[in-house]
Amino acid sequence: MITHDQGPARLLQPRFRLLGLIPGREIQPKPPARVAIEELSAGSVRSLIPGRLTLTSVDFAEIASISVSTPSSTLLNRVHEGPEREISTGSDGPRGMRLAEHQMPREDPLRAILTSILQPPIADLTKQDGILEWPHELLPYQREGVQALVDRPQLLLADDMGLGKTIQVLAALRILFQRGDVRRVLIVAPASLLRQWRKEATKWAPELRTLVIAAPATERAALWRSPAHVYIVGYETIRKDVSPNHPSPATRKPWDVVVLDEASKIKNRDSQVAKAVKLLPRRRRWALTGTPLENRIDDVYSILEFILNESAPVRPLFPSVELLREFLREHQLRRRKVDVLKELPPKTVENIFLDLLPAQREAYDLAEAQGIVQLRARGAKVTITHILELIMRLKQLCNVDPASGQSSKIEDIVRRLASLIEEGHRALLFSQFTDEHFGVAFAANRLRAFMPLTYTGSMSAGQRVLVEEQFTNNSLHKVLMLSLKAGGMGLNLQSASYVFHLDRWWNPATEDQAEARSHRMGQKFPVTVYRYTCAKTIEERIENILETKRELFRDVIDDVTLDMGRVLSRSDIFGLFGLQPPVGTPFASTHPVFGTMSGTEFECWLAERLREQGYKVESTPRSHDGGIDLIASRMDLLGIESRCFIQCKNLTNPVAVSVVRELIGAAASVDQSATLIVAAPSGFTSEAKALARPRGVLLWDAKALESLISHPVED
Amino acid sequence: MPIPYRPVPRPAASTHAAYLHVVANGRLFYGGLLISDALGQPVEFVHTSAATPSGVLWPEDEAREIAHCRLAHSLFDACQKTPAVLIASESIGSAKFCREQLAPSIPFALVGESPTLDVTWIGQAPSGSSAASVLFEELKRRNLTAEPFDRVVAALAEVYPHTGLGKNDNS
Q1: ipTM summary value
Q2: What is the pTM of this model?
């Protein structure tokens, strides 16, 4: 209460009243109404229980009643979206509730709206010297991003990698919590990034309690029920814990915000994980990705279903690419490094073409010649898999000839490293291979003078964290060698300003993502990327195709126009070795990859793909497999082992329900927590799907299997 | 189960500022008093309205002054916090009116709408070390001396949706 003097009363009477000329009518304000807003700022003890805000009425006797025809959550959404609210009032009096004192509902829309309106502007909240304290100054484009996230219940944040999408999301969440607009948030991210999210949340929203949901199934139910502001969970866990047919703690209450990091994980709308995340009840939907249209415009539709809260396919909503582009213009926020980070040092990419060393050349030529002879010998039965196997072998020889130990790439890297280290710089080296013969371990051995550290998928979670910290904090380690898959995303390695690609990857987005570990906010030096290609080898031929793909990709990502389809056609792949695709081959199906594989070949092919993703894969004896062909296991970053039982079927017809049933039966007696997978390029009968879906059995059809070639397994 | 936030040090003292604002639509006057902390976060909001009689016997300027005074006192009485400083924009009335009629017991600053931020203390300005002075300087540093009036207008427009407030702030 503010005490005050009444003042000389005579001054507050109209002059004519003093003369007795008017009746004693006076200006009498209506009894005031008061909204008490519970303090939310950092430093105080607050609760997230509903009814946090209390409206204490002074006197509502004269306040007109109102009817609110929309629920408060909708109203709040509309506050941000702008359309007129559906509120009616019987008079011109203030809006309020005809309720006795102390009987206010816990969720009063007006109170919530007022609380929101009376908050300081977002622009003031994100200023460095503003209301909230931030660990670092938010850059102008980041403040715009925060504003967009706070304002919009649905957004596809597609900034370039390294622009700080995580920071923008956490800042926006912090503000939304501060304003009382949200109370429960779920962040879904790849398992390898869970720790990163938690670390950043501790830094950027220290007052929020975060909880990582990562534990064996038996313990997860309790974790879901543990109180927290922000829950962080992996895609694979969501897939396991959310089912349309069973109640789940994850779907028990609506989430105020669901954030999908690396949203391209759900680009396949038929995947179990895509279906699972779309079952999450959610008020705000944010999807984050630096590569929303990685290879195909089709990829974006599933993500749009998530942010639009649609369960049906949204493709029919966009009959033309123009409409899709228009929609994305409204709902996608995409900034490129070159546009917003003027201060970010430039990235220079240098493609280095090397000749193989003499013995290396000899070994390579021999291997290629033999490989082509073998391919030709297969005649009409030659498949793309055979070609890919030869490519892999030749790429390894481009890295090093194990017999002679000669490697033109390593020689060049040693020379460059010596020079750049002398200048005080450090480097990252990526390879798709991890072994001691051709990949990360091999390079680490040859570069041991530079005290290299290695980071691969075979390391435990603790080891990986330790390596990241060691490299960041100990400048004696001049080089960090990473497998492209394990180290290609989520790491902040700005202390290195040189990036070497020992070998090339099919997907340029993957390479860009790896380079973004160094070329990101906080980088102080210009970043130089060296991509090695051995002249007159398969690498050079692949490079030529990659360059075309890269140009197309730039068009797609920025103009959202092009459906690239598959970049590499069968003709492209066969053409790498001067071969023509077989004509009229007796494929079991029309599928180019799996069509001519035998059952065993298909099983071997799948095992190899899973090994590339960091799985340990074990084949069961063929005659006693009991319905399980492959057992694949992998430790995730949090040290939790995920195990998969896989049945492989390469048939002409869709796989029947009996196969699924057999796998379920076989797994029940071995390990009930394992993920069950039936891999069958020919697809599945509806009965098989009906049995598999509620039991969480994954069905990998040709499309899912193809994705293993260029993309990691979910999580 | 209540979930405690982890404590984070705060830069400002636990004092409050009150922002008084009155807007008019014809003969109808709407007053809002926003209490915020030193960081500009809202703590309490009190609002009310009053109508002035029309006709030649109620000159507009006098009716406005009376309405402003009545509304202000009503809001002063209704708010539960006791702020360290009261801030109003110059549109509330002259310095003489503020001093003689509103006459709050706490330090009272009238702020201008110019970018240079003219400040007129009603009565004696608070001493440099006083809570009111420290708080006011903190608010000034964060550009929080005039901005909250926009919030008050927006809140009044929300509470009185059919009066055209916010579109025609002719106070």
Answers
A1: 0.87
A2: 0.59
